[in-house]
Amino acid sequence: MQQNSLEHSYDMALKNGLFVFCSFLASLIFFVGHGLYNSTSIDYNDFSTTPSKKDFDWRERLALFQGDDHSQFLDTPAILPRRQLRERRSEKRAAALVKQDDEVTVKLENAALERSNSVDSSVLGKYSIWRKENENENIDSKVRLMRDQMIMARVYIGIATMKKKSGLAQELQKQLKESRRALGEAISDADLSRSAHEKIKSMGQVLSKAKEQLYDCKLVTGKLRAILQSADEQVRNLKRQSTFLSQLAAKTIPNGIHCLSMRLAIDYYLLPPEKRKFPGSENLENPSLFHYALFSDNVLAASVVVNSTIMNAKEPAKHVFHLVTDKLNFGAMNMWFLLNPPGKATIHVENVDEFKWLNSSYCPVLRQLESAAMKEYYFKGSHSTSLSAGSSNLKYRNPKYLSMLNHLRFYLPQIYPKLDKILFLDDDIVVRKDLTGLWSVNLHEKVNGAVETCGQSFHRFDKYLNFSNPHIAKNFDPNACGWAYGMNIFDLKEWKKRDITGIYHKWQNMNEDRVLWKLGTLPPGLMTFYGLTHPLNKSWHVLGLGYSPSIDKSEIENAAVIHYNGNMKPWLELAMAKYKSYWTKYIKFDHPYIRSCKLGE
């Protein structure tokens, strides 16, 4: 019994001791936890919209809490180096970005300075986008509006006629006539009459009315397409007419030059025979002098060639001009140079019709020119259809091809048998420098010294010759470079040795039906002198002044010879004004004959 009482007392004491220990432990945990919380907790008042200036920003404090306080617990010896490496990389990237931004800023500043320096300070303050004169208005806006209205009027007239709206069609037709009259030849708004504005307004009202009554998308589209096709055909016809008329103009001789030739011829045949002779006949066959061949039927052009050559020659007395013309101009050519001798130089004029050896039995081209087929080609091929169908080939039907003057260049040794070298000149050139250097050019046993004209695919053999013909394809390279007639130095010794005239005859005979080339002298020249032409420096001979408006002035100034090849000859009204002064410089407009024929006007 006593033993049970002791066991009960022991149990009660044990329970009381456990209760006291748990109470003490709970108090300890409370106070320690509260102290730790206070030392590291976040003050939630910091999330207020009006934080104190003394307090950190809540984001900064959170970063501080996460980075500094916890890092001592989270960073292990393995993690710490990696974190430090990341931090260093971040710092480097930030520094690089800052540097790049600085460089870009400097470049932009420099560019701005350059632009500001390039601005002309004299015009600063003068320009304003609000000023009336600086408005970007089209100067022909009203003109184009009127033309557009007229096109639509034509469309609606057709539709109105189709739908039997005769009243509206007549109203449109009347307004169209008035608009045409108001527009006239105007090309800008300043050219329009005062009534133009009213006509635009009236036409707009009629077109609005027509649109309400007649508009049909398919019909309008069809009519506009028909007008466009008609306009295209008109443009093509006008181009053909323009080509025809320009070719025709190029063939004609101006009245002034015809007048000059007639007056000179009359006066020449009134001279006694003893006064018709030129001095210096002993120089004509002297091979040590500088000899020129000039074949022309244009007195004024020939005079420019001779005058420009002599005026730029270093030793005029050593120059000899061999001039050949036809019987029609023989008297005029003689009279001009008798009245206007080329200083100390020698000149001699001959008549091609007096070359008795030059006949159809010897010369293939003469025989061909006299043939019925050639006469048909020249004279009957240009009747009713010549303006349209024949205009493309009109350049090949130039009357100069009927003249043997154009083919004499293939007979130089026959005309001048005692000479070793001769410089051939066309009559549409101007000499700007002394040419005697050409006689000392080494032609390397070639016959012809000429300036080449090929550039990329232009002026190569396939542009002149018919390479579908086996004779052409077998003997010539289609990509061979072409060259120019107009200023050519010929070695007459090599010419005779290689029988150049015989080669020319061979090809001319094979071209009886114009199957190898069309007409002209350049294609047979390319064939005859194939492999026998020495290229000269391009500054000796600048071409294109008769067709190209884009020749650089420096090229002309540096050229020894400039050539007006093309239709726009300097003695024609077609001539380009920018090049004409180079030619007119050598004409004496105060000369009595020039004045009497009004050539200076």
From TrEMBL:
Top-level lineage group:
Eukaryota
Which GO molecular function annotation, any one, does this entry have?
Answer: polygalacturonate 4-alpha-galacturonosyltransferase activity
Which key words tag this protein in UniProt?
Answer: Cell wall biogenesis/degradation, Coiled coil, Glycosyltransferase, Golgi apparatus, Membrane, Transferase, Transmembrane, Transmembrane helix
- The main location class comes to Golgi
Q: Which residue windows are transmembrane per the record?
A: 12-37
Record pathway: Glycan metabolism; pectin biosynthesis
Q: How does it sit in the membrane?
A: Single-pass type II membrane protein
Signal peptide per UniProt: none
Q: What class of enzyme is it?
A: transferase
> Which InterPro entries does the annotation name?
GAUT, Glyco_trans_8, Nucleotide-diphossugar_trans
Single GO biological process annotation from the record:
cell wall organization
> Which Gene3D superfamilies does the record cross-reference, listed alphabetically?
Spore Coat Polysaccharide Biosynthesis Protein SpsA, Chain A
Any idea where this protein resides? Golgi apparatus membrane
List cellular component terms (GO). Answer: Golgi membrane
E.C. code: 2.4.1.-
Positions in coiled-coil regions = 162-189
Name the family the entry cites: Belongs to the glycosyltransferase 8 family.
- Its name, as the record gives it, is Hexosyltransferase
Organism annotation: Anisodus acutangulus
